[in-house]
Amino acid sequence: AAKRGALAEAKQAWAAYLKGRGSPRWTYSRDDGRALGTALERVGAKTRLLGAADEALALKFDLNGTRVSLRSLDWTDPRDLEGRPLAGPSRQVLNHLHQWVLLGRAGLITGDPKYTRVVAEQVEGWAAANRVVEKDWLFARDRPENPLKQYQSAPGFHHYRSLCVGIRTANLAETLELLLAGDEVDADAVFALSRLLAVHCRYLTTLG
Q1: What is the mean pLDDT of the chain?
Q2: Cβ neighbours of residue 198 under 8 Å, at least 6 residues apart?
Q3: Least crowded by CB within 10 Å, which of 40, 70, 118, 143?
């Protein structure tokens, strides 16, 4: 399908392959979601998880122990309801994407697509706002005099540090699994997450 230029068909085929892959096994399945929901409810944690997920839908987050309400989701310049920019550490934690894992778990437990739909909507936006430096470009012979300094001025560059990339890689992998475990799989989101995960892995094995 990809060779024919049928991108939509290729995305559907890729998502179907990942969802039905037998080896290696995925961590999550729909049955795991029901079991997880029961286990969390038994210890009184299900309500807290779903409450936090609903707050994430409303752009309310706990970042580094600070409660933050965002007026919109701007990955490179997030601001609170009063228009104040988030402090560096809080902005960094927001871009670790823990909230995608939270939303994915809520979607798996409840079967409600509203949680995973938000993740699907945000993946492309995050990737577009946060470019990654490429090893080939950084060390090219015709590079600018100080390419790294020039690149650091680009929006989102600071999110590509080894520690941040490592944390986010784990979250991207779990988010992808959670989306694949649902009854309805968004092929566009699966493709975008797969591509973003590949970029992160490439960074860690070349520049990290």
Answers
A1: 82
A2: none
A3: 143
